[in-house]
Amino acid sequence: MGPRLVFNTFDDIRGRCDTAPVRQVDGGETGYDNSALIPSGDWVPLTPAEAERHQADDSTPDIVRIELVHRPLPDLDPDDLAGHLETATRLDPLHGRWPTELLGCTASPGNQTTTTEDSATGRRIGLHVDNFDRLPYARRHQGRRRLCLNLGPGPRYLLVGDHDVQQICRAVHTDAMLDRHYPHTDDVRRYVSQEHPLRCLRIRLEPGDGYIAPTELLPHDGSTAGFDQPSVAAFWLGRPVNAS
Asked: Fewer beta carbons within 10 Å, N or C terminal of the chain?
């Protein structure tokens, strides 16, 4: 199951969601892990048929849905990024609907194709899967979702792959290996290196916009490509769930 977006009509997503192929960087691209995955940049609008394919329905479990959310923000000085971080520590992101303990904040400069860095190397890692819950292949879809809010001052994007990591693992591992496998970002990179197709959705998030997404299941990253202003993303992690 690829990404499943929660929206009522195509008009709700039109104009804020594009799609592009994913490509693998080589060693000559400064600032990236070798073999990191990034969008090609050949963005096209999401068609009605694609929107229908990615739309969640009543049979879609909550824990694998991507919900687009909005939270009014207090007045923030666009030049005071430290103030944005302080605001996040005091913010109840969804009025009690979500855990209020902050997972972390990231200040991203503008015009970055992808935003997540490996703290050990300073290199960007491209599309990746999170591993907070360390679940094996068979239970990967039961991982907690993560909430992200864009605190501004600039817009940013959520990037998300159109295949989930369970689908990807089935393509690159034998059934015997899957029984004891723990999915990893390396699986996604191997999938693309073997020339399996992977596309990326790009969803625009204005300040105050955010998402609740299964980041343990779906390859994803942030992006500020095309925006001159930096933005601060604040993250919360959901509560553990008992899922079937």
From this structure: C
